[in-house]
Amino acid sequence: MGEVEPGFIQEPEHRPKLHSLQAEKIPVIDLSPISNHAVSDPSSIEGLVKEIGSACKEWGFFQVTNHGVPLSLRQNIEKGSRMFFGQTLEEKRKVRRSEFSPSGYYETEHTKNVRDWKEVFDFLAKDPTLVPLTTDQHDHRLTQWTNTSPPYPPHFRDIIEEYIEEMEKLSFKLMELIALSLGLEAKRFEEFFMKDQTSFLRLNHYPPCPNPHLALGVGRHKDPGALTILSQDEVEGLEVKHKAHEQWIRIKPIPNAYIINLGDIVQVWTNDAFESPEHRVVVNSKKERFSIPFFFFPAQETEVKPLEELINDQNPSKYRTYKWGKFLVHRFNTNFKKHKVGNIQIHDFKTR
Ligand SMILES: O=C(O)CCC(=O)C(=O)O
Ligand SMILES: [Fe+2]
């Protein structure tokens, strides 16, 4: 990626300030009380559940330490990602994603119709992943997405698969803590993910950018799934918008911690008690940056709507039900090409 061509340039109001506020305040939560076992005795983890609940309420964004993911596995995948992106464009394009499956390499993603300053490799957690064939609400046919294997570095696919298993384990634990923090049973969310989840892992590479004040690594957006577990390297760039102050805040990398953010599905399930935070990635002119988000997505047939237990006459449902699979396929189709209209958003299902 050489010049900042017009397709990358953000409208003036969305261009980044290169000296943003530092987020010392983003909660850092120690998961050691649950890192080696499932959440069996809620009373032993009351403090932790409270911390999770307030982090979700105030930010929808937090970091976790002592999360139980082996460091060696993280180092292996980070090294593999550097080696993969270090290849020539010609090599990487041999494993390009296609119109028929989102897995593979691509460097033309658009967020809100502006091109992102990044290149990406996507890998599905389940191979095959079952999804609707079309976005048409009345079309019940399904299709399968399958993975594209990165041929280099050697054994990279095995490393990715092993890493995804750890991401899934951590996601289930976090969803249990979130459920408890809402006064629900720990396993309340499990059914949506046990069979046919549509999660995927993304390797992001943000090359140095000659005009970092004009472009973004990823434009402002909310993640559409239930939650995201992000590994970022030591180069800063991720920014989150604080709900109350409306300011962009830079997340300071903590070595070996993971950044967790809630996605739109949790916002709908909780009827806006927890919100999915808007975030973006700023690039810089000197250093390249790598990150690895895991997007925890439910099964395609999931009907997303506020949970019965969390709505009542005083707090009626704010959303119409939508089918996750249709939403996902809609997103995939619009991200793949530049479109005149914006992406589908949970806002489209808002009733009040
Ligand atoms: O690279 C990052 O720090 C975050 C990337 C991100 O927000 C995304 O891929 O959805
Ligand atoms: Fe994101």
From TrEMBL:
Family: Belongs to the iron/ascorbate-dependent oxidoreductase family.
Chain's gene name: LOC106766864
Start and end residues of each Fe2OG dioxygenase domain: 197-298
GO molecular function, one term: dioxygenase activity
Record key words, sorted: Dioxygenase, Iron, Metal-binding, Oxidoreductase, Vitamin C
Protein name: Probable 2-oxoglutarate/Fe(II)-dependent dioxygenase
Matching InterPro entries: DIOX_N, IPNS-like_FE2OG_OXY, IPNS-like_sf, Oxoglu/Fe-dep_dioxygenase_dom, Plant_2OG-oxidoreductases
Protein species of origin: Vigna radiata var. radiata
